[in-house]
Amino acid sequence: MIWNLDFCTQIIYEKRNCVNLFKSALSACLTITLLFIGIAGINAQEPLNKNERTFLVDDINNKRLLDIRQNILQSKTIASLSDEQKAQIDSLEDDLQKNLSRLNDQLLSLQKDLKKLEAEDVVKMKSINRNIDEQAKLIAKQMKLKAEQKQKIRKLLTAEQRVEFDKNILNKN
After folding, report:
1. What is d(CA 34, CA 37) in angstroms, rounded to the nearest whole number?
2. Are residues 2 and 63 located together in one domain of the fold?
3. 159 and 78 in one domain?
4. What are phi and psi of 46, to 5 degrees?
5. Are residues 168 and 91 in the same domain?
6. Please, are residues 81 and 165 in contact by the beta-carbon 8 Å criterion?
7. What is the pLDDT of residues 17-62, one digit of tens each?
8. Domain count, the chain
9. Angle (deg, nearest 10), helices 83-118 and 50-76
10. Is the whole model's pTM more than 0.85, yes or no?
11. What is the CA radius of gyration of the chain?
12. Which of 46, 141, 155, 36 is nearest to 96 (CA)?
């Protein structure tokens, strides 16, 4: 049998193409495998411990409490507060702190629950959304309590003291 030179060249060329195609496929497989190993390594990292997770939440809650304390201090720095006014403001402050502390505890609990819900194998968006809505309600309650507190303090003040109190609040922002 006589082989045509063109035919032999074509077979060699096709073999080279097959080898090159195989190399490309192997390279792609290795790249994908390394990518999955990298992702698995990232997912296998230890989750944040309890102290690190709550640190972020505590920062937010501490900022809220700091805002409240600043509002109260502003009300106490008003010149010419009588002893009776100071006692009433202290009483209001204690009530507010108790209510906000209770709400903060509930908020922290919901935030921890949210982290658990988000980390479940089967994520239930309805549960996550319900949790977020509950958090929003608690934050709204806190804001309403603070606004109510300011109005209660304003009612205790004389007209001149009220002007100073309002000026302090406006300057704070």
Report:
1. 5
2. no
3. yes
4. -65, 135
5. yes
6. no
7. 766 666 776 676 667 766 667 666 655 555 555 554 444 555 555 6
8. 2
9. 160
10. no
11. 33
12. 141
Q: Poorest-confidence range of 35-44, 64-73, 112-121?
A: 64-73
The distance from CA 99 to its chain's CA centroid, rounded to whole angstroms, is 23
Closest-CA residue to 79 (of 167, 171, 172, 164): 164
CB 122 within 8 A of CB 140: no
Neighbouring C-alpha atoms within 13 Å toward the C-beta of 119: 9
Nearby residues of 80 by Cβ (< 8 Å), 6 or more positions away: 160, 161
* Alpha helices (H) along the chain: 5-43, 50-76, 83-118, 125-156, 159-172
- Same domain, residue pair 38 and 103: no
For residue 136, what are the domain limits? 50-172
| Environment class of 65 (CB within 10 Å of its CB; exposed 0-12, middle 13-18, buried 19+) | middle
Q: Looking at the structure, do residues 89 and 159 belong to the same domain, yes or no?
A: yes
